[in-house]
Amino acid sequence: RTRLALIVLVLVILPTALLSILASRVLRNWESILQRRLETSAVAAIWDVSNRLHSKLEEVSEEVRTSMADCLARGGTPAEISRTALRLTQSNRIVGQVYLFMNPMGFIYPERAPAGRDGPDKPAMEKERLQDALKMEIGADAGQARMMCLVTDDQVYCFTHLRNRKGLYAGYRVNPEAFNRHLENVLKWLSGSDFVLCARGPGIGRRDDVEITDSFSPPPG
């Protein structure tokens, strides 16, 4: 009996235990590989989100630049500029306000409102801060070719130089509600089968947090 027990121990129990240990290690290693793949896919998706959002801002910026350039080529009267700006805000929801800026003079459109008896109002002061920030950005952009994104007073603005027009820039204020809806659509589109991309925070213009959760985790609180 003792001999039979030893035979069973050597030939059955020990190999089974060894196989169980090896299987456990293989499963843990495979789980780590899958986790790394998931993290890599999620990080790649975040970069894709960032690139798509930047491309959208550039696309809208080019639309504003082209429309304002065509407007000025037709004469660029104040009434014509106003109609072009209104058409842009109505046709593209991401455009909250259109601007035309002459460096270093200041904004051509919208025109500066006269100060009241109590001094400049809040929108006028915000516009002054935007003007100062834009002048600094233009000074740092010697080539005048790239899209310039500015954040002032929790608002995001994009400006581009009008080609063949020295010192003249067209830009727009980003409509945060429309931009955030676009962001939500991009996140849904790029979420994988094993992870969900979620953007949490106060919105564009402020510091945002992006959380990544897998499909089996509870939703973020």
Describe the structure.
- The chain is 54% helix and 19% strand.
- It is α+β, with helices and mostly antiparallel strands.
- The strands form two sheets. Strands 2-1-5-4-3 form a five-stranded antiparallel β-sheet, sandwiched between helices.
- Helix 1 (2-73) runs antiparallel to helix 4.
- The N and C termini lie far apart (62 Å).
- Mean pLDDT is 76; it is low at 114-119.
Q: Order of strands side by side in the largest beta sheet?
A: 2-1-5-4-3
Mean pLDDT: 76
* Percent of residues in helices: 40-55%
Q: What proportion strand?
A: 15-25%
Helix/sheet category: alpha+beta
- Radius of gyration, in angstroms, nearest whole number: 29 Å
Uncertain residue segments? 114-119
Order of helices and strands: HHEEHEEEHEE
Shape: elongated
Task: Tell me the number of strands.
Answer: 7
Distance between the termini: 62 Å
Helical segment count: 4
Major sheet attributes: 5 strands, antiparallel
Topology, pairings included?
Elements: H1 2-73, H2 78-91, E1 95-102, E2 106-109, H3 122-140, E3 148-152, E4 155-161, E5 168-174, H4 176-190, E6 195-200, E7 209-214
Antiparallel strand pairs: 1-2, 1-5, 3-4, 4-5, 6-7
Helix pairs in contact: 1-2, 1-4
